[in-house]
């Protein structure tokens, strides 16, 4: 009868397999992910990667849209400043029609307002010569110039508001997509802690039993060798 004391027993291969399974369950618990490499679930990893790309893309689109909203807000602030200046010029225009007012003082403020408004208009409208024709000695011409300026500002503000509202809707859509897609990815790649903990305990119990069986096997082998000697 041939006897090989050094041959690997079936119980040892079971122990190795169970130890590997326990390491895998431990990794899932530690990382919080069911899929830690391609071997865990090749198809699942591919789907999760595709969902991650979609999440990153939607998140960046949301950032881009919000950046444009912020830019619009800055422009709207500039338009508001121009509108305030035009309102003051309108008051002065009405005052200039009274013979009791100092035309030179009004014209001086007209010139200051024109300079201030054009400085802002150059930044938000790209037109450093946006306003002209404010004349304390010609209320009618001044009113015509102000009316044209008011119409332009109103039109620009309406367009910016509409664009910002549309962008806000886009941001909401992108953010909702990120949340929903992230939830889908989580269901695919994240660890089910209850199930994994149960599997971990089961593997631990099986491993403990396999180790005990291995010890019994080695003990029997030692007894057999002693009997043969």
Global morphology? rod-shaped
Domain module count: 2
Per CATH, the architecture of the largest domain is Up-down Bundle
Q: Could you report the average pLDDT, rounded to the nearest whole number? A: 82
The third-level CATH topology of the largest domain is f41 fragment of flagellin, N-terminal domain
Largest sheet data? none
Q: Note poorly predicted spans.
A: 1-8
Radius of gyration: 40 Å
Report the end-to-end length measured between terminal Cα atoms.
14 Å
Strand composition percent: under 5%
Q: Percentage of helical residues?
A: over 70%
Structural class: mainly alpha
Count of helical stretches: 5
| The CATH fourth-level homologous superfamily of the largest domain | f41 fragment of flagellin, N-terminal domain
Order of helices and strands: HHHHH
Number of strands: 0
Tell me the name of the CATH class of the largest domain: Mainly Alpha
């Amino acid at each position: 009868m041939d006897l090989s004391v050094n041959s690997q027993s079936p119980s040892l291969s079971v122990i190795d397999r169970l130890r590997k399974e326990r390491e895998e369950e431990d990794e899932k618990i530690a990382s919080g992910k069911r899929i830690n490499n391609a071997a865990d679930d090749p198809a699942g990893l591919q789907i999760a990667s595709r969902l991650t790309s979609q999440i990153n893309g939607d998140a960046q689109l949301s950032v881009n849209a919000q950046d444009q909203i912020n830019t619009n807000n800055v422009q709207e602030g500039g338009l508001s400043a121009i509108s305030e200046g035009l309102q003051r010029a309108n008051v002065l225009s009405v005052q200039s029609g009274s013979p009791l007012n100092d035309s030179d003082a009004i014209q001086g403020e007209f010139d200051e307002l024109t300079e201030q408004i054009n400085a802002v208009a150059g930044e938000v409208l790209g037109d450093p010569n946006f306003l002209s024709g404010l004349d304390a000695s010609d209320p009618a011409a001044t009113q015509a110039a102000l009316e044209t300026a008011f119409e332009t500002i109103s039109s620009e503000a309406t367009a910016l508001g509409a664009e910002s509202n549309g962008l806000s809707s886009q941001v909401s859509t992108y953010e909702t997509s990120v949340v929903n897609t992230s939830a889908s990815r989580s269901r695919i790649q994240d660890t089910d802690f209850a199930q994994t903990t149960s599997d971990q305990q089961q593997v631990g119990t099986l491993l403990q039993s396999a180790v005990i069986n291995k010890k019994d096997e080695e003990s029997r082998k030692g007894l057999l060798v002693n009997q043969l000697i």
